[in-house]
Write a structure and sequence with these properties.
Strand order of the largest sheet: 2-1-3-6-12-13
Keywords: Isomerase
Pfam families: Rib_5-P_isom_A
Helix content: 25-40%
Function: Catalyzes the reversible conversion of ribose-5-phosphate to ribulose 5-phosphate.
Subunit structure: Homodimer.
Bound molecules: ribulose-5-phosphate
Radius of gyration: 17 Å
Strand content: 25-35%
Number of strands: 13
Number of helices: 7
Family: Belongs to the ribose 5-phosphate isomerase family.
Structural class: alpha/beta
Length: about 220
């Protein structure tokens, strides 16, 4: 395992502390989450099942023996555990590198506690070095892209990719996101935008950072 994967695994092990027996668990998407699912499979918590943010995660959870239910049938969700592409000091995030941002945002919004796990390469002072994913309705692809240019970004269509919801994604380069909430609202207001991968209105509640010196927990 590479050093970075070891840090992700350490963050995933620390995130396990937030799993509550008897409660449905929200599970995100990505390589850090895959480590977390490995931890779940090893420790076998007494949970009734999971709510998943992607087809890929659903497959892994089922293969590990966990029931996966729809958010509509889980009832109120306690804890949601996911990774991120960037995290700032306010626990605001860029997510969607794996393309699962829409379901991730829905589950994060429904959960009482959002626990985010990252390795320390994802911590930034200013969000935006990682291209900001924006999921769009296909017919609005060009109009949204032009509006994103006006907002100061350089949108690029993610080639060969369609989300689990059937939509394309624009990755917006060269943004320096000084005010994440303002930008999230501005992009959300563009007709045809399904979801922007800025998680500022609903940031993480707990950020678990795998670093060389150990795991940092920021709240
Ligand atoms: C998927 C995501 C992931 O959480 C994000 O891309 C981080 O992935 P990884 O853990 O593989 O670095 O938002 O849509």
């Amino acid at each position: 395992m590479s050093k970075q994967e070891e840090l992700k695994r350490a963050a995933a092990e620390a995130a396990y502390e937030h799993v509550r027996d008897g409660e449905y668990l929200g599970v995100g998407t990505g390589s850090t989450v895959n480590h977390f699912i490995d931890v779940l499979a090893e420790r076998k918590p007494e949970i009734p099942g999971c709510v998943s943010s992607s087809k890929a995660t659903t497959e892994r959870l089922r293969a590990a023996g966990f029931d996966v239910v729809d958010l509509n049938s889980s009832g109120a969700l306690g804890v949601y555990i996911d990774g991120a592409d960037e995290a700032n000091a306010h626990l605001e995030l860029i997510k969607g590198g794996g393309g699962a941002l829409t379901r991730e945002k829905i589950i994060a919004g429904a959960a009482r506690t959002f626990v985010c796990m990252v390795d320390d390469s994802k911590r930034v002072d200013l969000l935006g070095r990682f291209p900001l994913p924006v999921e769009v309705i296909e017919m609005a692809r060009s109009s949204v892209a032009r509006a994103l240019v006006k907002l100061g970004g350089e949108p690029e269509l993610r080639t060969g990719f369609i989300s689990d919801n059937g939509h394309p994604i624009l990755d917006v380069h060269n943004l320096e996101i000084m005010n994440p909430i303002e930008l999230e609202d501005a992009i959300n207001a563009l007709p045809g935008v399904v979801t922007v991968g800025l998680f500022a209105r609903r940031p993480a509640d707990v950020l678990i950072v795998g670093a060389k010196g150990g795991v940092d927990v920021i709240t």
